[in-house]
Structure formats: C-alpha cells, structure tokens
C-alpha cells in the first residue's frame, strides 16, 4: 500500500467456486459490503472500499467469471484468448492446482497495484485447498480469512506459517440456513473490521523492516530461562526480539521472516525440531531447515549419543555450506545442552 490512502479505491475480494457455492458467495459479498458501509465513518471520506466477487470454479463446463483469473496465470490481458473451457485440464486435481496458482497471481497483481485490501473465501475440501494456497502467499498483515469445513482438523497444511485465519463452518457449505448465516455473518464482520482497521491505522508491517534490528530466537519450555535471559540483554541494547516456539512450524515461520527481510539476525537456541525430523516426532522441521538462514547470510538437545551426533552433523553440514562462515558463531551453554 502507498503512504497515503486519500482518493484511493481498495477492494476486498470474496472468493469461492460459483458453480457450487454461488448462493453463499453472493451472501458473503453483500454482507461484507454492508459491514464496510457501517464502518465507513472510521476511514477517510475520499477513500472507498469496494467488494469484488472472484469465481474460482475449476469445472470446465461452468464458465462464469474465471477468465480474468486465468489471464493472470497465462500472462495475457486478452480474456478472449483465455477461458476455462480451453485452458483448464480435464483432471479435477490438476484443474484445481491451475486455478489456485492463477488466483495467487491475480491477488499478487492487485496487491502490487495497491488495490487489495483483504480477502475472504469459503469452501469445502477442494475449495479450501484451492483458496488457502493463494491466500497464505499474501504478506503478513493483509486481512485474509476462509470459512471452511476443514477448520477444526489439522490445518497446518492450509495455513503454513502465514497469518491466514480459518473459521469452522460448523455445518456443510450448502445454502444459507440459521447456522451458516451466523457463521458467515461473524466471518464477514471480522474481515471487514480488519480491513477498515488496517486502512484507518494504515500501519504497513513492511514499513518497519530495517528500522530496528530484529533478532529471531527459537524457544520451548526447557530453554525458556535461557531465552528470556538473552532476550532481556538484547532488548536493553535496542534490538527487537521475535520468539518462535520450536514446534516445527515455529522454525519455518522464523525462516520465512528471514527470507522476507523482517529478521536480520538469528539465535537458534532451540534445535529440537531437528531431532524430531531425524528420529521421529510430532514437532519436526523439514530437510530445508537452516538453508534460508544460510542463503540470507544471517548468523545463526535430550536424545541418545548417536542421535546427538546425527543432529550435530545435520547442523554442521548446513553451516559448513554457508558462504558467510565469518558471520556464524556456535555457542554451547556452559551448564549443559539439550538437543
């Protein structure tokens, strides 16, 4: 977003598969606009926030409004050359993947053009997979929410390390009824409030990058005392510290922020995610752990003896491959180490 919102027209995108969720999509759109109108006194009179319906139907036989989305995917502004009938694959899974990537590029284009103010979607299993992939690619702080039938299960695949919000639909997404109306109404009120709050406050998280040196630190219950001690020292020296719970996703979230430029230094005090990765566990990192820290050239346990050696070798191999070894320091706690 630009430094001023005066005389701007922002858009909130309401996203669903219109071939199966048209009634719900229209209800969502109307409700978002109604809530935005109620909140309008909180933003500049010269600033407009409009609602745009985005149809991401992956069914070739149902051709409604997908052409603009697919044009983003195929890199053309000529919608006459692009349509779901002659572009989408016959296989449903492949068609969903194409439409999901197309939606991601469409949203990015609107973000780059300083139009995107927020996005809300709804879907079952296919719709959630399609929409979430695109929404979680949006920057931190952009309001993004999905009403989903899958929101009460294991949602890590859909959210990743983003700030995407999932709201359980409670009932299946099949028409408007006394239950779904309450759920949808709460969801649209939430996204409308976030959009207006972001525009009126206009605090873009990217504007804080590099103003204060930021250090990412990994932590769990065992390392809390150590991390708190280090955090206090760094805070007094003027650093901002971001603490990440070493749950598998915590390490990934930290590395995502390293890649995005939010974090300028790393204290990887809690490397237990590596142990879970190597010997089995529910809080495991993946094989890319430490790679992005090394790529950004940012400096950067209780198991059996053999497992400790394997974990140490994993970390050492990553550090030895770094092109900025002079910026890396390995510190071992004087009173013991837990891997």
TrEMBL record:
Cross-referenced Gene3D superfamilies: Uncharacterised protein family UPF0261, NC domain, Uncharacterised protein family UPF0261, NN domain
Organism superkingdom: Eukaryota
UPF0261 domain location: 11-197, 213-298
Pfam families: UPF0261 (PF06792), UPF0261_C (PF23189)
Name this polypeptide is given: Uncharacterized protein
Lineage: Eukaryota, Viridiplantae, Streptophyta, Embryophyta, Tracheophyta
